[in-house]
């Protein structure tokens, strides 16, 4: 760990460091941090265990990069990052590191965890129910967290059918917005529909990000099957048409279902 910190410091050295690394700041590195986190998740989803150490290392480098920039600015250092998360883990697990009983259900532990986080938010003067939900989260994930927060204080649909009714309503409003030719309004209505879809996922105990990742993987799989079928005939998708590719899609879909 010490060697990695020293390498990062050398890369950021104003006199002898790498010009690209020297030019970076928190805002420019943040997208890479998010990207590396997604690549970790991707390796896990693909069960590419041989790739996971490298992907985790890339993610760790992002933490080191941010900590180095903060250290240079006199804000905090890597030791502060480690100290913060160490204290948090101890404080959030009193049944392991404190005097609380470990003999409790997973559901009770989740409730206790949420109560601890609520106290932490109060200590940071986050008084609103929705305070502290990170703006940088993927939009679907943030929608889910916002809805979960609101649901804790009773602002929630009673059940999935109520959400389905709302989806039908939002779909009608989207059609009306499309016909109005107002693109800003159309975007707003499309966002409303996505937000309600995330709410339905929550009521059905589905992770919308995971569901969309699965849909992306399925689309990729079936489109590659189209490409393979056309390649067997010496052609590419641009040499085909929608009707033929739709038939090949159906064939790929039938093959997956056995």
Summarize model confidence as the mean pLDDT.
Answer: 92
The number of distinct helices, counting runs of at least 4 residues, comes to: 12
Rounded to the nearest angstrom, the radius of gyration is 24 Å
Stated plainly, the CATH topology of the largest domain is called Helix Hairpins
Proportion of beta-strand residues: under 5%
Can you tell me the CATH architecture of the largest domain? Orthogonal Bundle
Q: Please identify the top-level CATH class of the largest domain.
A: Mainly Alpha
Flag low-confidence runs: none
Organism: Paracoccus halophilus
EC number: 3.6.1.8
Protein name: Nucleoside triphosphate pyrophosphohydrolase
GO biological process, one term: TTP catabolic process
Describe the structure.
The protein has about 260 residues and is mainly α. It has helices spanning about 1-10, 20-25, 25-45, 50-70, 80-90, 95, 105-125, 140-150, 160-180, 185-205, 210-230, 240-255. The model has no long low-confidence stretch (mean pLDDT about 90). It catalyses: ATP + H2O = AMP + diphosphate + H(+). InterPro entries: MazG-like_dom (IPR004518), NTP-PPase_MazG-like_C (IPR048011), NTP-PPase_MazG-like_N (IPR048015), NTP_PyrPHydrolase_MazG (IPR011551). Its EC number is 3.6.1.8. One of its GO terms (biological process) is TTP catabolic process.
């Amino acid at each position: 760990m010490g060697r990695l910190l020293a390498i990062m410091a050398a890369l950021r050295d104003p006199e002898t460091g790498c010009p690209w690394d020297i030019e970076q700041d928190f805002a420019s590195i943040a997208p890479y941090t998010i990207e590396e986190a997604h690549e970790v998740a991707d390796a896990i989803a693909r069960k590419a265990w041989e790739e996971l150490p490298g992907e985790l290392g890339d993610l760790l480098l992002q933490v080191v990069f941010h900590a180095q920039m903060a250290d240079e600015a006199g804000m905090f250092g890597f030791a502060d990052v480690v100290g913060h998360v160490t204290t948090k883990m101890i404080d959030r697990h009193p049944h392991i590191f404190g005097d609380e009983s470990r003999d409790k259900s997973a559901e009770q532990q989740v409730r206790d965890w949420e109560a601890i986080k609520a106290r932490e938010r109060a200590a940071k003067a986050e008084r609103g129910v929705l305070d502290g939900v990170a703006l940088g989260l993927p939009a679907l994930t943030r929608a889910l967290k916002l809805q979960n927060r609101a649901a804790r204080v009773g602002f929630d649909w009673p059940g999935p059918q109520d959400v389905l009714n709302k989806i039908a309503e939002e779909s009608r409003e989207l059609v009306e917005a499309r016909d109005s030719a107002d693109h800003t309004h159309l975007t707003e209505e499309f966002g409303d529909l996505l937000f309600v879809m995330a709410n339905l996922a929550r009521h059905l105990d589905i992770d919308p990000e995971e569901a969309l990742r699965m849909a992306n993987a399925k689309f990729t799989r079936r489109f590659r099957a189209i490409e393979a079928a056309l390649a067997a005939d010496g052609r590419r998708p641009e040499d085909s048409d929608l009707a033929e590719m739709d038939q090949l899609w159906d064939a790929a879909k039938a093959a997956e279902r056995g």
